[in-house]
Design brief:
Layout lengths: L1 E6 L5 H12 L5 E6 L11 H9 L16 H4 L2 E4 L2 H10 L3 H4 L2 E3 L20 H24 L1
Parallel strand pairs: 1-2, 1-3, 3-4
Helix pairs in contact: 1-6, 2-6
Length: about 150
């Protein structure tokens, strides 16, 4: 199974989600991340994202940002959007109905939350990154358990 995590710039939420989910699944699962915009192409994740993940024994420092391309619809089985804007952008880029069905809001996978979006911590502080990490860790735990069980 191949899973893609998508946020706006691919330096905060989606690389954190990639690292977290990768840490919870066997190596035969392919987890990647991308951004809707091209603001940070080829950059490492935000220092605060790297720091929070490292604190939780997850190394995302080697990841490089990339922009989502329409061929990603062909490469991935599930595409998780971090928020409603990312979701809408992905649906807009989908050319086929089958592609639209691959796109999901990541928080819709969690039975434990009313929140359907992961807030962008970019303009926040380290505590905002910690909250996002916790939110993504919770939902990725549920996703991993669901995938392995199926």
């Amino acid at each position: 199974m191949k899973i893609l995590m998508v946020c706006l710039g691919n330096i905060c939420r989606s690389p954190m989600a990639e690292g977290i989910l990768r840490s919870k699944l066997p190596d035969n699962y392919i987890i990647d991340s991308a951004g809707i915009a091209d603001y940070h192409v080829n950059e490492k994740p935000d220092k605060r994202a790297i720091e929070i993940c490292k604190k939780n024994n997850i190394n995302i420092s080697q990841l490089k940002s990339r922009q989502f391309v329409t061929s990603d619809f062909d490469k991935f089985d599930i595409i998780y959007a971090m928020d409603h804007a990312n979701y809408s952008d992905l649906i807009f880029k989908a050319k086929k109905e089958v592609d639209k069905k691959k796109v999901r809001l990541i928080m819709s996978e969690s039975p434990n939350t009313e929140k359907k979006s992961v807030p962008d911590p970019y303009y926040g502080n380290i505590e905002d990154f910690e909250k996002v990490f916790d939110q993504l860790n919770d939902v990725c735990t549920y996703i991993a358990e669901k995938i392995v069980k199926d």
